[in-house]
Design goal:
There is one protein chain. With about 350 residues, this protein is α/β, with parallel strands linked by helices. The protein has three domains: about 70 residues; about 60 residues, membrane protein fhac (Ubiquitin-like (UB roll)); about 150 residues, Cell division protein FtsQ/DivIB (Rossmann fold, 3-Layer(aba) Sandwich), CATH 3.40.50. Helix content is about 40%, strand content about 20%. Strands 8-7-6-9-10-11-12-13-14 form a nine-stranded mixed sheet, with helices on one face. Helix 2 crosses helix 3.
């Protein structure tokens, strides 16, 4: 708005100046600077107010959005928990229905791997009957009951849904016959004594002597260390190249182990240490010992890298072949002990 004479005109918001008469317009620089200063201040205030209003408009939706997200998260969590509970309840109910139904009733049992133990004996020890629900059958418990049979070493059970069960049996194999308090028992390669020998049982196994009932079992019910080491020594001696068949192995708590070979019935004392090296040493000198005449009463390998021969009474000479073995460096054979 402009006034025609001597009035005021609008120069923009916040900047109003008086119009100068025609004759007094020479000094206009000061007026213009005032106008510009007031205009700048007005613009700054307007911009600040606009920014404040804009920040208020933006902060409110953010706060509302964060609350909405929190509420949505709580709602989704509650829905997920409710859904999980419903699923668990449905599954539990379905399991109860299947457990009590005849859908998985046992109809057939397949038994594999048994030769000495009859299938009927295995089923009786397993404690399973026709119609039992195989879904709820505890495999480990059934296997443990079957493994109580002396001849059974290991059992694995496979469920074949919906109505069949497979029982795989691994029977024990005798490795030797152990004499315990005057009675004969089978013992496997792990040292487990499992079957008392009857008149109809085979006896052509190596004989293990020197054990009592308390010595073959540890306090935890497992095979003792002595019987385990004895069977390990027997296994090593039987499978080492050049070693003859072992007919007997004896354990003594003081002297250690001694063995008898099938084709050379002379006791060989091994002692209690370095048994593997002594078996290797015996296998090397056995061809010479088997031809030795007269046969020694015993052979002592309890000393490292040498064999001490105890000759029968009246024998005074050492066979040249034994000296040849010592000269070749294969082993050391000492002079015969008297």
């Amino acid at each position: 708005m402009q006034l025609v004479t001597g009035g005021y005109r609008n120069m923009g918001r916040g900047a109003i100046t008086r119009r100068q008469p025609e004759g007094k317009r020479g000094n206009t620089s000061r007026t213009r600077s005032v106008v510009r200063t007031r205009d700048d201040a007005a613009l700054m205030i307007s911009a600040a107010r606009a920014r404040h209003r804009f920040s208020q408009k933006r902060s409110r939706p953010r706060r509302r959005a964060s609350w909405r997200r929190a509420i949505n998260a709580v709602g989704m969590g509650s829905a997920a928990m409710a859904l999980s509970g419903m699923l668990l309840a449905c599954m539990s109910g379905l399991y109860r229905v299947i457990e009590t139904s005849r859908m998985f009733g046992l109809e057939a049992v397949e038994i594999m791997g048994n030769s000495r133990v009859s299938s009927q004996e295995i089923i009786e020890h397993a404690g399973i009957t026709a119609g039992v629900n195989i879904l709820t059958l505890n495999n480990e418990e059934v296997a443990r009951r079957i493994e109580a049979i002396p001849w059974v070493g290991h059992v694995s059970i496979i469920k074949r849904f919906p109505h069949e069960l497979t029982i795989k049996v691994t029977e024990r194999e005798p490795s030797a016959v152990v004499v315990i308090d005057g009675t004969l028992w089978y013992v496997d390669k792990g040292g487990t004594v499992f079957h008392r020998i009857g008149p109809e049982d085979r006896r052509d196994y190596p004989l293990v002597t020197g054990f009592s009932k308390e010595m073959v079992t540890s306090a935890q019910g497992r095979p003792s260390d002595e019987i385990v080491h004895t069977l390990a020594l027997l296994e090593m001696a039987q499978h080492y190249p050049g070693m003859p068949s072992i007919s007997e192995i004896t354990f003594d708590t003081v002297k250690g182990w001694s063995i008898y070979m099938q084709d050379f019935p002379v006791p060989v004392y091994l002692g209690a240490g370095d048994l593997e090296q002594k078996i290797i040493h015996l296998a090397r000198i056995y061809p010479v010992l088997s031809r030795h005449s007269p046969s020694p009463e015993r052979i002592d390998l309890s000393f490292p890298c040498q064999a001490v021969l105890r000759q029968p009474s009246g024998a005074k000479e050492v066979a040249p072949s034994l000296k040849a073995v010592a000269d070749k460096g294969h082993s050391r054979v000492s002079e015969p002990a008297t």
